[in-house]
Amino acid sequence: MNLFRRFAAVAASAVVLLGLTAMPAAAATIQSGHIDGLDIDYANGVLSLDIKTYSPVNDDLAPSGTTLRLLSSSAITVPSGTAWSCLGAAGSTVYVAPQTQNVNLLYTGWNAEDVPAAQGPVKLELVSWTAPAGGRFALYTTAGFPAAPTFRLNTNAAAGCPVTVWPGGIAAGSHAHGNWAFSQLGTYTLTFKATAQNGAGATSGNVTYTFQVG
């Protein structure tokens, strides 16, 4: 083997070895398709929080450097009824990455399939956030639109609306989707923290995500 080939072989081996322990890759922008924005993994006593993709390949992406985008075509109108008041005023516009897949929009969920039962449920906290003027974020589920929402997280400061700790935690082994709603166009940052055993175990530390609406 000549010197060049020997160097190439060594470099390739190094890439493989680094790939075993490297941090998740980062993507520029994701604006459509199935992802799990809150991908919670647990291995060797370490809990991590990243973004899981499915197409073109299964991969873990670092939230840092990755932008999750909601197109302006994701706009919906807030229904009437007191159940919806924590999302916004009836008739107002919110931009939603929907719970039911629309191939033209971001379809994002949460995933704790790699968390052993003994480490669950996972406490999920919305530690801090930034938003455009008047901007609010909410993550909610429904049993079919416009059924009443169940808010998992909500930054609305109105009485009775804020939810900064996921009620009951995220069940180990689960994978589900919800509606990720934003009340204004612009850039949002959301900082999450996941902790195993409903707050008693290993933690991901603070992990910041960037969402671009519009």
Give a summary of the structure in a few sentences.
With 214 residues, the chain is mostly beta strands.
Question: What would you say this structure looks like, in words?
Answer:
It is built from two helices and 15 strands. The chain has 214 residues and is mainly beta. It has one domain. A five-stranded mixed β-sheet has the order 1-5-15-14-9. A hairpin with a 5-residue loop joins strand 3 and strand 4 (59-61). The N and C termini lie far apart (55 Å). Residues 1-23 have low confidence and may be disordered. This is Surface-anchored protein. Keywords: Signal. InterPro entries: Surface-anchored_actinobac.
Kindly list the characteristics that best describe this protein.
Surface-anchored protein; mainly beta; 5-stranded mixed sheet; about 210 residues; about 45% strand; Surface-anchored_actinobac; signal; globular; disordered N terminus
State the secondary-structure class. Answer: mainly beta
Number of strands: 15
Percent strand: 35-45%
The ordered H/E elements are HEEEEEEEEEEEEEEHE
How many discrete domains?
Answer: 1
- Roughly what percent helix? 10-25%
Total DSSP helices: 2
Strand numbers in spatial order across the main sheet: 1-5-15-14-9
The major β-sheet equals: 5 strands, mixed
Write the layout of secondary structure elements.
Layout: H1 3-21, E1 29-30, E2 33-43, E3 46-53, E4 59-61, E5 67-70, E6 75-77, E7 93-97, E8 106-114, E9 123-130, E10 137-141, E11 150-154, E12 175-177, E13 179-182, E14 186-195, H2 196-199, E15 203-213
Parallel strand pairs: 1-5, 2-8, 5-15
Antiparallel strand pairs: 2-3, 3-4, 6-7, 7-13, 8-12, 9-14, 10-11, 10-13, 14-15
